[in-house]
Amino acid sequence: MLKNYLLSTLRNITKRKGFSILNVLGLSIGLAASLLILQYVKDELSFDNFHAKGENIYRVKYDYYKDGQRVFECATAFNNIGPTLKADYPEVENICRLYLRYGGGIVQYNDISMKETNVFIADQSFLEMFSYPLVAGERTSALKEPNTAVVEEATAKKYFGDENPIGKRIRFGNREDYEIRGVIKSPENSHLKFTFLFSYKTYPLFYPEMPVTDWEVGWGWYDFYTYVQLKPGTNSASLDAKFPDVVKKLGREGDVDRFKFSLQHMPDIHLYSNLLQEARVNGNGESVYFLLVIALFILVIAWVNYVNLSTARAVERAKEVGVRKSIGAARAQLAFQFIAEAFVINFIAVLVGLALLNVSIPFFNTISGKDLTSSILTDPVFWYAVVGLYVVGSCFSGLYPAIILSSYKPALVLKGPIRFERRIVFAKGFSGISIRCVGSTNCRNIDSLSTAAIYAKPRIRNRHKQNACDQRAGRSSESGAVSFTIQQF
């Protein structure tokens, strides 16, 4: 039986090649667009989730007030906030500070000189708190001593090629010399992106004109990204409530009213933080979830268009149904046949859609600023989603045409010609829909997504009533005619 269904399905597909190609293209393009959006969303939601201690890490946020009004919100804080929290509050397990070398600088190694950006000064505790993969070197000591540095893996290739960078010496600017003690990966899905990390203890040596206390316990210099690792089970709100006491201890009179500090959960920074001095351009959580709605909407449009086209072919399939029923085919068998056709069409569309997805990724990266790859094709979750969409889509797009086409009465269908009575009934469906989405990267606008959904609903007219209508209209009629009405919802 299944073999018969399959052979009949393939015969119908090859018999109407143009119609089949149109259906496959509509479904495959919709599927490829939806999967591409889902891959983008998955990448946005994956930021900073590779840190083993990420759930307990927070960034200190600094707000400046004047005359009771907030002047700005900043991602950086004073450099002595972190050490004070660790020393005075037992719920704080560890802290680290980073200072961005704004504008970057020239890095020299032998005859190689290049301008580098995203250069940070970092505490040794940075390597202990965060789980950036260390390719070479010792995590416990790479930034512990002055004049030491950690280089990002791709950056190391530019200077050292295939040589081992450990122990090599570089110069930053005109007077700063560093020994490479580690090679680290800096994943794209992180709110921190760096090329070099220089040891925090180096800078008092290079800038003797600045008091050492400015680097360790200075108050008022708010250029330091400060991260706090809380002990498991600690409520961050309870530590937020203690910041006024920290300001009273470290600051001057009146600073409590001017300087406000709070904690930002690190996994939320990329999608929900847009502060002054962010280390990197962040995304937008609302836009990301809205893109999920758009992906679903594109799929629904593709399926509805398939339903429209399949139902519009009802007039061509009417006699086929009549013949099948007249030789004993049950309605359930006919319905299964049409659902099987939907499964085959959707399967072909999935294959074509995956090919389109693979081809379109480089173009999407160009306009979005992302670095998506085809690695998603090896992700089991991705295949679960594809199989789920395939099954749901096939059932959704095949069920209604199956019900309509299998409902024909063979006696009326086989007696006379088929005539259309056209009335506008469902022209509004998804017509003129315009969606504008503000994205989180350079891919900011998705405009004017529209389509029109029209389908025909068959109706068998009573013979005598049809003849009377035809006589009043001054036209002849054929007995047993079948008419189709398009009705508006």
What does this structure look like?
There is one protein chain. The chain is of the alpha+beta class. The strands form two sheets. Strands 1, 2, 3, 4, 5, 6, 7, 8, 9, 10, 11, 12 and 13 form a 13-stranded mixed beta sheet that branches. Strands 14-16-15 form a three-stranded mixed beta sheet, with no helix packed on it. Strand 1 and strand 2 form a beta hairpin. The longest helix is centred in the last third of the chain and has 38 residues. The C terminus is likely disordered.
Q: Using only CA atoms, what is the Rg?
A: 33 Å
Range of helix content: 40-55%
Summed over residues and divided by their number, the pLDDT gives a mean of 79
Report the sheet-strand fraction: 15-25%
**Structural class designation:** alpha+beta
Main beta sheet strand tally, sense and closure: 13 strands, mixed
Give the N-terminus to C-terminus distance in angstroms: 38 Å
- What shape does the CA trace take? elongated
Domains, number: 2
How many helical stretches? 17
Give the uncertain stretches in residue-range form.
420-489
**Total strand segments:** 16
